[in-house]
Design goal:
The protein is an alpha+beta fold and about 350 residues long. Helix 3 packs across helix 5 (about 55-70), helix 8 runs parallel beside helix 9 (about 200-215) and helix 12 crosses helix 13 (about 315-330).
Length: about 350
């Protein structure tokens, strides 16, 4: 048949062969039909349907498609019949239109790129972002998140993070998963420290399982000083106000600051417990969180303040303290403090 001489049988043309003219707007069937009409302009719909291995309805739809693209037009010799236009005319016009559209799109993309660079310069100027070569101020939560996303795209080897939260919000988890999956796929090492209290947060636990499955590492400690992120041991991101993340962050590149932050992280990492393992008790039967709670309360802070440091609710703090008093056989907080010192718990 004709299509065999054109490079394949009907099934191959319409089902498996790669369409050559798809970029010009032709479907596979319309492309095959155009090739046929160039060879057999006298064929009618039934003959085309048989040769193409298709239905007459599909052939008529392809005929309309070819007419709309200007690849067939009415025959002068046979009124009522449509004949194929020569490729240099029909396809040449479509190619010229496509080239013009691509040139216009490239021009628009270049304009968009220029606008993006202008917006970035205006943003940095408005925020006073880079005040020196070593310090960059990010004065809102949104600007901090955007900057972290930018830096994540360029990270080469390692990310270290301290996250002093009792649990991540669904929005934070979604954003973290996107960035984390991208950097881990590039072979970047990702180590994160959370509070022990996240062990009671199901969503964060699920995130931890997902992250470790990709090669990330998560450990927990009773308390953390503030939220810190270190990228490639060259850049550290710290909060402007540790008590209010909405105030933004400061990005540091000064070597002595980076060295101090990394030393703090490594010290905490060594004493931290991998998330997913059960909480260990020391030789006196205390978890790290229980011992830290005793130390905080003994320093004179309130239950509310202790809860904030540990990432625990007020109810949880009082529940843990009640359990400790029972184990100490104490009837008051004061007596519990005395007995804790006697037992070497403080």
């Amino acid at each position: 048949m004709i299509l065999e001489r054109l490079g394949g049988d009907a099934a191959d043309s319409t089902d498996s062969a790669d369409p050559v003219l798809e970029c010009l707007g032709l479907t596979r069937l319309a492309e095959s039909m155009y090739q046929l009409l160039l060879q057999r302009p006298e064929w009618d719909t039934p003959e085309l349907a048989v040769e193409l291995g298709s239905t007459e309805e599909a052939v008529e739809a392809s005929r309309a498609e070819l007419a709309a693209l200007g690849l067939i037009w009415p025959s002068h010799e046979n009124p009522g019949r449509m004949v194929a236009i020569q490729p240099n005319l029909g396809l040449g016009a479509l190619i010229a239109e496509r080239e013009a559209a691509l040139l216009k799109e490239q021009h628009e993309l270049q304009q968009a790129r220029t606008a993006m660079m202008n917006l970035m310069r205006e943003r940095e100027a408005a925020q006073g972002a880079r005040e020196t070569g070593e310090i960059e101020y990010l004065r809102s939560l949104d600007s901090t998140r955007n900057r972290i996303a930018e830096l994540s795209k360029d990270v080469q080897s390692e990310i270290l993070a301290l996250i002093p939260k009792a649990g991540l919000s669904p929005e934070s988890l979604e954003a973290s998963q996107k960035l984390d999956s991208e950097v881990l796929a590039r072979g970047v090492s990702l180590r994160t420290l959370y509070l022990d209290s996240v062990r009671n947060h199901p969503a964060t636990q699920q995130y931890a399982v997902w992250l470790t499955g990709l090669g990330g590492e998560i450990r927990t400690v009773p308390t953390l000083p503030m939220r810190i992120i270190v990228i490639d041991r060259k850049t550290a991101i710290l909060p402007i106000d540790p008590k209010d993340s909405r105030a933004g962050a400061v990005l540091m590149r000064e070597e002595s600051v980076i060295a101090a932050v990394i030393a703090l992280f490594e010290r905490l990492w060594e004493s931290a417990l991998p998330l997913g393992t059960s909480g260990q008790r020391d030789d006196q039967g205390l978890t790290a969180q229980e011992r830290e709670l005793l130390r905080i309360l003994a320093s004179g802070l309130t239950d509310e303040a202790a809860g904030k440091r540990l990432g625990l609710s007020l109810r949880s703090v009082r529940r843990v303290m009640a359990d400790l008093m029972t184990r100490l056989e104490a009837r008051s907080r004061f007596e519990a403090g005395v007995r804790a010192v006697e037992c070497g718990w403080l």
